[in-house]
């Protein structure tokens, strides 16, 4: 079994996170994904956990992804807004993750010792505002109505998010597994149909 988990199992205080780093999720999403990891690994010693970052790719609606939803803020030029410029993310295209899962499954069929926890994340680092700027540049959209918010999130934020959840991907890379679609290429393919 291959269980897809999240970088949100970490608190974001000590990146990059190795596969054996001690999880400390800050929010319910991270906690439930960690619970899923624990059950997966306890159920069968040959099972695999793949932790991934924020994902993006083709969507049925723009708000389907925490990345693609940023297009809404760009298109609403009559509504000034603030976008976080604090937390660091390494977005990954869903096609990259699908390819990694396939490669892992194929390697697992060849070698039963391929099991346990693995990490993957994109090679480019962005804040949400940084992703928004990249989207604006790819599609030649104005973004002067969007202000970067570099403030530390309040302790009373409904869903606390980790600062930097960079994952150490070396375990996968040692197996010759991994691929990174450049963000500007991936986001163009993901959002092209939503631009008029």
TrEMBL record:
GO function terms (MF aspect): methionine adenosyltransferase regulator activity; transferase activity
GO biological process, one term: S-adenosylmethionine biosynthetic process
Record keywords, A-Z: Transferase
Pathway: Amino-acid biosynthesis; S-adenosyl-L-methionine biosynthesis; S-adenosyl-L-methionine from L-methionine: step 1/1
Tree of life domain: Eukaryota
GO cellular component: methionine adenosyltransferase complex
Domain RmlD-like substrate binding per the UniProt entry, residue ranges: 2-192
One Pfam match: RmlD_sub_bind
InterPro entries reported in the protein's UniProt record: dTDP_dehydrorham_reduct, NAD(P)-bd_dom_sf, RmlD-like-bd
Subunit-level organization: Heterotrimer; composed of a catalytic MAT2A homodimer that binds one regulatory MAT2B chain. Heterohexamer; composed of a central, catalytic MAT2A homotetramer flanked on either side by a regulatory MAT2B chain. NADP binding increases the affinity for MAT2A.
Family: Belongs to the dTDP-4-dehydrorhamnose reductase family. MAT2B subfamily.
Function: Regulatory subunit of S-adenosylmethionine synthetase 2, an enzyme that catalyzes the formation of S-adenosylmethionine from methionine and ATP. Regulates MAT2A catalytic activity by changing its kinetic properties, increasing its affinity for L-methionine. Can bind NADP (in vitro).
Protein known as: Methionine adenosyltransferase 2 subunit beta
UniProt organism field: Cryptotermes secundus
